[in-house]
Amino acid sequence: MDKIRIVGGNALHGTIPISGAKNAALPLMIASLLTEEKLVLENVPRLADVALLQRILGNHGVDITTNGKRTGDDPNAGQTLEIDARVIVDTTAPYDLVSRMRASFWVLGPLVARMGVARVSLPGGCAIGTRPVDFHLDALRALGADIDIDGGYVLAKAPKGLKGARIVFPKVSVGATHTALMAAALADGESVIENAAREPEVADLADCLVKMGARISGAGNATIHVQGVPHLRGARHSVLPDRIETGTYAMATAMAGGDVLLAGARPDLLESALDILRAAGVEVEATNEGIRVRRNGAGILPVEVSTAPYPGFPTDLQAQLMALMTKAKGRSRITETIFENRFMHVQELARLGAKIHLDGDTATIEGAERLTGAPVMATDLRASVSLVIAGLAAEGETLVQRVYHLDRGFERLEAKLSRCGAEIERISG
Ligand code: EPZ
Q1: Which of 4, 108, 347, 408 is deepest in the core (most CB within 10 A)?
Q2: Is the predicted pLDDT of residue 110 greater than 60, yes or no?
């Protein structure tokens, strides 16, 4: 299995291009199931999760073509996917595929909306928490689907089509909002989605659905109105930039010191995280080309943060911020409110010399003068990259194992960092 080797101590200087957002690309690809016409998605990141979803959609009969790389192409340019779901040959999403990526469960809504039936494996547990799917199922029930669970599969049926309804989520859920939006787009009549997730990836999905002919207003707010239409058409849509990748490299720059332009990043997508970085003493500036992040000489100041749904501080940047705070001058506190078990990086950061005390959902971090390199184990996507960030500031060599987690969500990570002066390489085998 591949490993990432980092020798800490180098400041970062240069430009890091920001890729299209994984968490927007996945629901956008799934939205192709809603139409018989071709959906063209641009700026899709080249990631393991995208490749896996191509396979999952392929299993339903969806044809996906992608542009190959050409000599002279910008290696950082995203790919364009032409997705053709004209014929759905199979409405079952089997366990062996769904269990590998939770987001693949989201095929349920569009399949039942368009085909009147869908059978999708329950996604099962996950390293960061129990992550149930009850909100997805309740939303589809509200829209008139019959839902049965049998043998680990959800069977959803709506032979006469879905009907518009009022859907009130008890708690904000990104995925369940995607499910409700996609299903309501083809339902008969009006739907109102309340306590909807306001994440930019939800708004990006809604933008694409509108291009496909859906009638949606209010996406990006807590209440979304959807007037169902009988058919959706093809469209062309470009995936928005990845705010989590942006925040990750901003924290990497803050950790290592230096001056980096995050090219193509959109500061309006991660204001809460940028505010926290400023409070930590990092210079953050919006420019015409993206976001410029600088820390020269000044130390890192401790912060107190709770994760929250958008526009709050994202849970997907919690581990990276914790890595940064291990070098702060003083005591920081980070509370995780979204997932109950998203602290798997704590014990690995401790192997590098971090002093972190866990009490329920809150981690208290005593900033240490020194981190020292060590072998560490990646446990999930964002936890893995927090170890890379810590490794950039640790003395000596850090070896991050189980790199496949990183490949799920960070495109060309070691190339992007090494181009800015980090000593980082992938060791194959
Ligand atoms: C999305 O997951 C993201 N995944 C996650 O990113 C992200 O951490 C999460 O949203 C929160 O921002 C993708 O976009 C592919 P949720 P999702 O439903 O939609 C509970 C990454 O690293 N809940 O918003 O699955 C749930 O347990 C990944 O890129 C229910 O109780 O998350 C959690 O406590 C990891 N019942 C909370 O809601 C449900 O039916 C929010 O989860 C659904 C969710």
Answers
A1: 108
A2: yes
